[in-house]
């Protein structure tokens, strides 16, 4: 017996229509929540796997993991080239869940203090993406005048929860740069890596000498001079106008940055410690960037031939290019002592400004 308004009587039991309707609604809600739950977890799982593959297993990816977009890697580009954005074609590939973003962190200097090593070490972190080269957006007018969209197109593709990092050491010494960076992003995180100033000056001289030896006759003349001849005048005074010496007077430039950015937005990275104990410095940077600690001693090994730490991940080992870590010329200890005494006052001014003693030798 059936009553379409009141319900059914089956097997001697009365079953109200309202009761059956509630069962249907409950079943539909259960299916809906289950679908949403599974869908969200599939998306989360997929994103996580994509990040792991892109960051740690580039060789495991294939063309199917990327999509074509206008003006964005030729189909025959390697995955590693795509990941590092080292492709020049107007038709490029990018990972389907990523896009180019303006950098949230910048390595602004200092030249010959280990900016490249720092960037490559940070790139070990799965939440870091790096620009392929030095973009020189903020320090070169011809680039800056092209606008932020041009700059953004120079950045790598990244996930929404990753931090994009760019480094151009000349930012540190260019007066217009701090204000220009603030105009892009007032909350950007700044990394400033410093080394003992005399060591940095000698390293700078070594690179300049290497470059000058292969260029014009006029620069070859300079290349033939020793570091002592260039850094110390004939009368025995330190040549503060010699560029490698000038750049090592850090406090004059740091003041310009602190006029624009608060101190807690700039992390001073100890370049000497980064060479001797990279993990301790990287841990500080992870915290500064708000990243979960991921980089461990297992990511580094000491290369006896090169004399410094190299990186490893998932069984793959990698050192910086052979142009990095050039052997320094022998410099007269008397000249080194004179230069360190010259830098003492300058270093103390730096310590006072940044509120941190770098512990550099005084003589």
Automatic annotation (TrEMBL):
Sulfotransferase domain ranges (all copies): 103-348
EC number: 2.8.2.23
GO cellular component, one term: Golgi membrane
Binding-site residues, 3'-phosphoadenylyl sulfate: 112-116, 195, 203, 309, 324-328
Predominant subcellular localization, coarse grouping: Golgi
MF-aspect GO terms: [heparan sulfate]-glucosamine 3-sulfotransferase activity
Pfam families: Sulfotransfer_1
Top-level taxon in the UniProt lineage: Eukaryota
Keyword hit for Hydrolase: no
Residue numbers annotated as active site: 112 (for sulfotransferase activity)
Record's keyword annotation contains Disulfide bond: yes
Listed transmembrane segments: 24-46
Keywords in alphabetical order: Disulfide bond, Glycoprotein, Golgi apparatus, Membrane, Signal-anchor, Transferase, Transmembrane, Transmembrane helix
Membrane topology: Single-pass type II membrane protein
Reactions listed under catalytic activity: alpha-D-glucosaminyl-[heparan sulfate](n) + 3'-phosphoadenylyl sulfate = 3-sulfo-alpha-D-glucosaminyl-[heparan sulfate](n) + adenosine 3',5'-bisphosphate + H(+)
Disulphide bond pairs: 310-319
Name listed for the protein in its UniProt record: Heparan sulfate glucosamine 3-O-sulfotransferase 5
Organism of derivation: Parthenolecanium corni
């Amino acid at each position: 017996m059936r009553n379409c308004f009141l319900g059914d009587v089956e097997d001697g039991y009365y079953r109200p229509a309202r009761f059956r309707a509630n069962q249907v609604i409950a079943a539909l809600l259960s299916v809906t929540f289950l679908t949403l739950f599974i869908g969200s977890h599939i998306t989360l799982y997929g994103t996580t796997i994509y990040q792991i593959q892109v960051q740690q297993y580039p060789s495991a990816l294939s063309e199917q993991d990327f999509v074509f977009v206008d003006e964005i890697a030729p189909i025959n580009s390697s995955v590693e080239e795509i990941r590092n954005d080292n492709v020049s074609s107007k038709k490029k590939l990018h990972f389907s869940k990523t896009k180019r973003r303006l950098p949230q962190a910048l390595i602004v200097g200092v030249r010959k203090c280990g900016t490249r090593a720092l960037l490559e070490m940070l790139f070990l972190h799965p939440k870091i993406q790096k620009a392929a080269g030095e973009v020189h957006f903020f320090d070169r007018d011809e680039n800056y005048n092209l606008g932020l969209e041009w700059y953004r197109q120079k950045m790598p593709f990244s996930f929404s929860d990753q931090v994009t990092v760019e480094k151009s050491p000349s930012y540190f010494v260019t007066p217009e740069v701090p204000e220009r960076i603030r105009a892009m992003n007032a909350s950007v995180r700044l990394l400033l890596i410093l080394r003992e100033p005399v060591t940095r000056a000698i390293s700078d001289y070594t690179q300049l000498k290497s470059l000058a030896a292969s260029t014009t006759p006029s620069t070859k003349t300079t290349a033939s001079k020793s570091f002592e001849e260039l850094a110390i005048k004939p009368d025995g005074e330190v040549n503060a106008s010699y560029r490698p010496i000038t750049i090592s007077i850090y406090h004059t430039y740091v003041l310009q940055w602190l006029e624009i950015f608060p101190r807690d937005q700039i992390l001073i990275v100890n370049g000497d410690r980064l060479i001797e104990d990279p993990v301790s410095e990287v841990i500080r940077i992870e915290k500064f960037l708000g990243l979960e600690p991921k980089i461990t001693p297992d990511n580094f090994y000491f290369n006896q031939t090169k004399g410094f730490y190299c990186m490893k991940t998932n069984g793959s080992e990698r050192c910086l290019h052979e142009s990095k870590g050039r052997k320094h010329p022998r410099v007269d200890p008397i000249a080194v002592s004179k230069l360190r005494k010259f830098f003492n006052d300058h270093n103390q001014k730096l310590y006072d400004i940044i509120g941190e003693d770098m512990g550099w030798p005084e003589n």
